[in-house]
Amino acid sequence: MARDRDAKRERAEYQRLIRTSGIDPATGLQSRANLEERLARIVSLPARSRSSYGVIAIELTNLDEVVARFGLSVGDNLLRTFSEHLRDVARNTDTVGRYSENIFLVIAEIGGDPVVLKNLLARLLHTLSFRLETKATSIAISVRVGSVLCHEVHRDGVVTSADLVAAAIAELSSEVSRAREAEATDGSSAAAASMAAVTDAQNAGTGLRTVDRRKEPRKRVLKRGQIVSASLGVVVDCTVRNVSARGAALRIDAPFAVPTEFDLVIPGDGTRRCVRLRWQVGTDLGVDYVDR
User: Fold this and answer.
1) Which DSSP symbol is given to 134?
2) Helical pair 32-43 and 161-170, crossing angle rounded to 10 deg
3) What's the confidence (pLDDT) of residue 216?
4) Under a CB-based contact definition with an 8 Å cutoff, are residues 81 and 271 in contact?
């Protein structure tokens, strides 16, 4: 009983320290309370002074899907890895924290220059485009981002910190960053390449259709295919939706962390090609052919 009482006291003290530290225990980033305190100081400034700040909202869109499919431990690993990437791109003058379960905020000092906010946004999109590698699988990370200039947020009466957050979240776009797409693009910056691979904003509700920006013309097809990974012992049915000289666009029946490299088999015409995953948005994915 004495040990049980000691353990309860230790847990209570740990929770108290977490609350007073202002750090989110799952990510090591600033807590929501700290973010709101920082935003409250900004909104208390005159409008002209608020022009020195911008707010970026980042939504980790497939966190729930990862937890449901792979469990809490993989979800926690994803949060930690995502937070490390977020810290890497943030500057010393920025405040970075976790606002809710899968929404993160960057409060950026931009000196009244919107270009600074735009450049930071591009770096975030590039850096937050990665795959979480586990012993069992490779998980593609997808994000949506939105940003606002603090002095441009208006409201009848007094602007609050909640207004700034709501405005940034309202600007969440369908942009999905894919660093590996950038690696395959010649003659353009990594940030520009990741920005090019975006989900069609008009179809954000479904999250299925993507903007066609390939250099080679695509031929639309509708064929039954299979994703085959001999090393992982995986065979997944898919639909081949279009093909080009460099690769193909596929759709699977349910969200699945597709291996980075696998064989694409089309039983109808006896085709079997080694392909490399270039991007994945939910059940849609794009692959490039690999010459062996």
Assistant:
1) -
2) 110
3) 52
4) no
